[in-house]
TrEMBL record:
Residues 2-76 form the Sulfatase N-terminal domain. GO terms for molecular function: arylsulfatase activity; choline-sulfatase activity; glucuronate-2-sulfatase activity. Coiled coil: none annotated. Its EC number is 3.1.6.6. Pfam families: Sulfatase (PF00884). This is Choline-sulfatase. The gene is betC_5. SUPFAM superfamilies: Alkaline phosphatase-like.
Amino acid sequence: MQGLKQQDLFDDTLLVCTADHGEQLGEHAMYQKMEMYESAVRVPAVIHLTDATSSVQNTPISHLDFVPTILDLLHIPCDRTFEGSSLAHTILEGTPPPIKPVFSVYNGNHAIGDIRRMIVHEGWKYVWDGMEAELFHLEKDPGESINLSGLDQYRQREQQLHRMLSTWARQSNDWIDYTRTWA
């Protein structure tokens, strides 16, 4: 950044710092990504633009939103459509991003064939690997220590999130069989 400032380019530069995943660092007795816990999938996104309003947002967003956002912020026209949506308004005005489902897929455990899909929506997280499900209420259980999947009082929420994940998977040409029941 110092070099950009020395060359008088800093005010004309969009800076984006993020990561593809967290490392867990011992949380849930794990290191690296390995699972869909927040310590692995919730990563920071720091975006600096001279004309932007400074703010901190905690609403989940997707990396799929980055390309349309960057194109908007840099006023680059593009005739392509993207799965993500622009967050330029959020960055420029400091307003919260729209609340929408955020999806993720992890297939790093090739030895056991474990491919997991996840949806985070309205304070809930649902994870499905085709055989087992996990359901967490992130606002009440941010450490994701109590799996609510299969409990009668949460069945309606679990079914809703399963349907949303299934719809997204079909639209993404995912191969997993979402017609199977989980409990």
